[in-house]
Amino acid sequence: MKKNICILLLFLVHVSQAQIRWPVVTQTNKPWTRWWWEGSAVDEKNLTATMEQYHAAGLGGLEITPIYGVKGYEKQFVPFLSTDWMRLLHFTLQEGKRIGLGIDLANATGWPFGGPWVKPEDAAKNVNTLSYQLQEGEMLKTPIRFHQLPMYRSESHAIVNLDTLLYPIARNNHLQQYAFDQVRFDTLLAPSCVMGYDSRGHWKDLTSLVDEKGMLQWKAEKGDWKILALFTGFHGKLVERAAPGGEGDVIDHFSKRALQHYLHRFDSAFYNQDLSGLRAFFNDSYEVDDAKGQSNWTPEFLTQFQKRRGYDLRPYLMNLFDNDSSAIHTRVLMDYRTTVADFMLDHFTRPWQDWAAKQQKKVRNQSHGSPGNILDLYAAVDIPETEGTDIMRYKFATSAANVMGKPLASSETATWLNEHFLTTLGDVKKAVDQYFIGGVNHVFWHGTVYSPQEAPWPGWLFYAAVHFTPANPFWRDFGTLNSYVARCQSFLQRGKPDNDVLLYFPFNDRIAVSGKTLLQHFDGMNGFENTLFQSDAVWMQEKGYGFDFISDKQVKGLISKGKSLQAPGGIYQTILLSDVSYISLGTLTHLQELAEKGACILFHKRLPDKVPGLLNWEKDEKKIRDFFKSLRFVKKNNASLSVAKFGKGCFLFGDQLEELLDASHVRRETLVDQGLQMIRRKNAGGVDYFITNPGGSDFSGWVPLQVPASRMVLYDPMIHVAGMAMTKTEKGVSFVYLQIAKGGSCLLSTGNTKLAGEGFPYTAMTKDSTWLTGKWQLEFLKGGPVLPQKKEITQLASWTDLLAKDEKYFSGTARYRLQFVRPAGKADFYQLDLGKVSQSAEVY
What 3-state class would DSSP assign to 800? Predict the structure, then answer.
């Protein structure tokens, strides 16, 4: 902190008179939190006490996620989905109704989906290969068997002899003490497919010729042969941080049957239960392959592949597993990856969504990290959820919500801002504002641990670094932050997004890239580094262009609305393809239909010339090349771009993104040039802006808006003050006067209906200031581990800067008190400058 406190005189500028109304804050407007039940060691008394604390602090709801238990409390553990556990869930749901807290429930303990009822045939699988060489007339002399070696990973770092454990892992007791997240047992695998390929390009399925001992009963025919054997193995992924009763194998996400068997356990537990207080089920990010090897196969893969891709994969298995640069390897690999993406959508996400819908529940899903097209996965659920620290990562979830017309996009918020108890509410607010700028409007704190009232300080904790729990000293002021978030979300949850550009997601370009592993995982811009897709997205964000990502499936759902594009969630001006190489013939055909009816389609630096996959690729690529050759691109004025008219619309091609966007009449909010950030949403009467100042200095000045308006209402969501904004119009452009402190934010609501109102209280500083001096009384009120004695200090400083051990390591609340003579002169208001406040403060 600064050594002294400075008092500055203020005066208020009122621009008019009237009444301004804030939106009514709902339960969904308020922030929710992930609520860890450690060992599910909960009881009615403490459930009620903690839930009332949460509600009093301004939380709107809780997501129950059972995880591993607290050492020493094993006798209080309640097995997941047991009769006692369901009784406690029912009590919680009823208390939620009474207190006013919404409840979501993770569809697993820890993550990902799995448990002791997942049988080996439904567990995550991998594919293993062995190859052999045979010459004409030879027979294979060794059995075709794959030895899957034992291994394990444990969060407890325990040394374990796997020979002492039973298979499958769920048969073992005391799994809590091991905290396994992956186990493979010593297993000898029989082949699931054996193929022969000769030097002339012929192939032969030899699977049925392998006997019970693994011997291949076949003599090589004419020519040299390569034998490829596939083995479906056990990936070994287990539920991470599993709660008692939830330890076991993770499901095979590529198998619809495995998911159905998994959910049947919940059907049994929920039978005849009153779940009316439950809003939604939750699924954490994929996180199956954050382990040794990949879960990259399912027993029905070959059958499903032929059904979906239109050809038999068996003749091309050698091409798939030979990691070379050949065109046929690339195309078969793309088809393999596309099939896996289909599995994630059709065998996991959609059936899970359908299962919840039959119970009249929603689903919240973190689709990132999976080997599927995450835009399609996010689009399939009710509430897409993101996490992290990167706006570009957020926008995959929020884009799917925007394009598909889903009112909520949530976030696992503030997971890893700093080490334990070092994160401030200021850090959290800064993170929340970035989520809002990225399109999130439904915040979930990460997170809050259920802790009995009688637990010694600091109560039960979880390893995630930000602790939104009553034991944290910032809990006193947590409600202020929650009120801020609720006020912001009361605007951000109403209306619809107001973005102009649809940025095509080049999923096919990415899956065409070969690598060390069969699968790629999609998570924000990972894998798109140094691509034009990434740089165009970042540039548009920084330059004030509103955009959303869009997938091939979503493109095919667009409808022409004159020159605009109608998505289920709103109207867009154009679609942009940035350096796209691969495009399906179906997607291009639909873009042609949109252009013919009036749309303008933008191509930045490249016209696509390839189709994904192997089937009919030469014929389809010729159609694409012939189409673009048929277009008559003409240079437009003095710009570097070219335009080709097509029906009532056109195709635009160029090297300069700004020229392409200008030519398609895309709006740019130039207030970003003054160091501000914004997001814009349409409401029933106009447009809402959320604007933040992430810079290192306060902002005060006029900013232009791209939305014409006759009135503007300015809201400060932190201090709950609102009023009519000062505005002006120059050359047809509307300007508003903003004052936003560094790290601050505001909401601006525009419209064209007349509204006389009281002016927003802008402030102006006088140059006079007074330094406060004297002796400060420092009294420690609450916290630990030791409550220090009262102190008298001569300068204002953080107690952690004092040398005594008790003060240095104290975490809690203290009171600084100073008596001083009121400054000379006359003023209506004073501003107290505390310098940098390391955590939070209440000032009297």
Answer: helix
Q: DSSP assignment of 415-427, as one string?
A: TTSSSTTT--HHH
- ∠ at Cα 660 (654, 666), nearest 5°? 170
H-helix or E-strand spanning residue 478: helix 475-492
Residue 105 to residues 42, 110, 755, Cα–Cα distance (Å): 15, 11, 44
Give yes or no for residue 524 having a pLDDT over 90: yes
What's the angle, vertex CA 364, arms to CA 521 and CA 687, rounded to 5? 100
Task: Give the C-alpha separation, 646 to 596, whole Å.
Answer: 6
Complete DSSP assignment for 392-423 = HHHHHHHHHHHHHT-S--EEEESTTSSSTTT-
Whether omega for the bond prior to residue 785 falls within 30 degrees of 0, making it cis, is: yes
Question: Amino acid letter at 332?
Answer: V
The proportion of the chain whose per-residue pLDDT surpasses 90, expressed as a percent, equals 85
User: Residue 484, Cβ neighbours under 10 Å: how many?
Assistant: 22
Residue whose entry in the numeric block shows the structure tokens 């047992």: 185
For position 2, what pLDDT does the model report? 35
Answer yes or no: pTM beyond 0.90: yes
Mean pLDDT of all residues belonging to the chain? 94
Residue 8's pLDDT is: 37
Which residues partner with 700 through β-bridges?
A: 739
Determine the Cα–Cα distance for residues 701 and 390; give it in Å rounded to an integer: 28
d(CA 34, CA 17): 43
**Cα–Cα distance for residue pair 716/723, rounded to 1 Å:** 9
Query: Has residue 350 got a pLDDT over 60?
Result: yes
341 within 8 A of 373, measured Cβ to Cβ? yes
- DSSP per residue over 711-751, as a string? EEEEEETTTTEEEEPPEEEETTEEEEEEEE-TT-EEEEEEE
pLDDT of residue 5: 37
Q: Number of C-alpha atoms within 13 angstroms, CB side, residue 290?
A: 12
Closest C-alpha among 204, 211, 166 to residue 190: 211
Per-residue pLDDT tens over the stretch 370-393: 999 999 999 999 999 999 999 999
Best CA proximity match to 282, nearest among 377, 361, 214: 361
Please list the alpha-helical segments (H only) found in 272-349: 301-309, 317-321, 327-343
- In degrees rounded to 5, what are phi and psi of residue 242? -65, 145
